[in-house]
Design goal:
- The chain has 358 residues and is mainly alpha-helical.
- The chain is 75% helix and 0% strand.
- The protein folds into 2 domains: 1-51; 141-351, Orthogonal Bundle (MetI-like fold), CATH 1.10.3720.
- The protein contains 13 helices and no strands.
- Helix 1 crosses helix 2 (29-51), helix 3 packs antiparallel against helix 13 (323-351) and helix 12 (310-319) crosses helix 13.
Length: 358
């Protein structure tokens, strides 16, 4: 029964492909992996909720999430209205009649409370209106086009950070105060200290222009993913490595670990079977803030590598005072962070069955 969530995830993938809802060819391996990761994650989370009898807890957290998003939507609305300047202000002033007609079209001439009520009503119906910058284009179309790219970039970077950070932290702890520990922590300190906007141009210069191994920009295939994902994942990998090392050093001194060694178990078995699992709680806890860092860090990476994600739209929408797009993207990012924190809490009961959510 422990693998029921995985089995259900595989069954969901097979059902979607059989129904023709998903398609895959050999050239679309990253997308195919994305489908697998998404289905397995969703079905395992559903299994966790049902098997642990925490539906009431999840319902409470969802209610709190909706309240948080309501406050976020209200603050964003008020800030956009009270900050000096407007979406149709420019260096060349529009004639008063033209500006009045534009504001009337988008209902910006109505009282603030009326605008706020209309805004909340549209959000409740998942209607975010049309962009002021891209005239006639619905916000949902812009998000639907750019959101999958940003999520793929973020998820791949997060997976890479765990795949690098956790083993590196375990190796450093197992070789405490030895050369391997010094090298691993040197990497970790460098990863935290060097910002992505500094590392990215250097890597582009080396790998794209000098060695000509990788393309310098865009998001058109696996070879285009390597540099953006690596650069975005370096910093969280360094944080995870340092945290894992510290946590493993605490656990490795426990009595049951000494007992495991006394039974004659190999070091790698003790480290990865007994020590690591009990050391992951701090790593899982910090995953929520790490996701926030990856989302905000992706703005810079998407601009540098001309990735057609939400980063470009987010920055342009703020610059152009594109109210509907700013509010839609703010709510979307807020929803992702709230969801990430909920998933982190659910993972506690998987890592340590002694933890009970209530």
């Amino acid at each position: 029964m422990k693998n029921l969530g995985t089995i259900l995830g595989v069954a969901l993938i097979v059902a979607l492909f059989s129904a023709g809802a998903l398609d895959w060819t050999g050239s679309e391996i990253p997308s195919f992996l994305w489908y697998i990761i998404s289905a397995l994650t969703v079905m395992n989370l559903v299994y966790i909720v049902l098997s642990q009898n925490i539906l009431e807890y999840v319902a409470k957290r969802i209610f709190e999430a909706l309240l948080t998003l309501f406050v976020l939507a209200t603050i964003t609305f008020l800030l956009l209205r009270f900050i000096p300047g407007g979406p149709f202000d420019s260096e060349k002033a529009l004639p008063a009649e033209v500006k009045a007609n534009i504001e009337a079209k988008y209902k910006l001439n109505e009282p603030l409370l009326v605008q706020y009520g209309d805004y909340l009503n549209k959000i409740a119906h998942f209607d975010f209106g049309e962009s002021y910058k891209y005239v006639g284009r619905p916000i949902t179309d812009i998000v639907a086009e750019s959101f999958p790219v940003s999520v793929q970039l973020g998820v791949y970077a997060l997976l890479l950070s765990f795949l690098i950070g956790i083993p590196l932290g375990v190796i450093a702890a197992a070789n405490h105060n030895k050369p391997l520990d010094t090298i691993a922590m040197g990497f970790a300190i460098s990863g935290v200290a060097l910002p992505s906007f500094f590392v990215a141009p250097i890597m582009v210069l080396i790998f794209s222009f000098w060695l000509e191994w990788l393309p310098p920009a865009l998001w058109n295939g696996p070879e285009y993913y390597i540099m953006p994902v690596l650069i975005l994942g370096i910093r969280p990998a360094a944080v995870i490595a340092r945290l894992t090392r510290s946590s493993v050093l605490d656990v490795i001194r426990a009595d049951y670990i000494r007992t495991a060694y006394a039974k004659g178990l190999e070091q790698k078995v003790v480290l990865f079977k007994h020590v690591l699992r009990n050391s992951l709680i701090p790593v899982v806890t910090v995953s929520g803030p790490l996701i926030a860092g990856i989302l905000t860090g992706s703005f810079v990476i998407e601009l540098i590598f001309a990735i057609p994600g939400m980063g470009k739209h987010t920055i342009q929408s703020v610059t152009n005072r594109d109210y509907p797009l700013v509010m839609a993207l703010t709510l979307l990012y807020g929803s992702l962070l709230v969801l990430a924190n909920l998933v982190v809490d659910l993972l506690y009961v998987v890592i340590d069955p002694r933890i009970k959510l209530s």
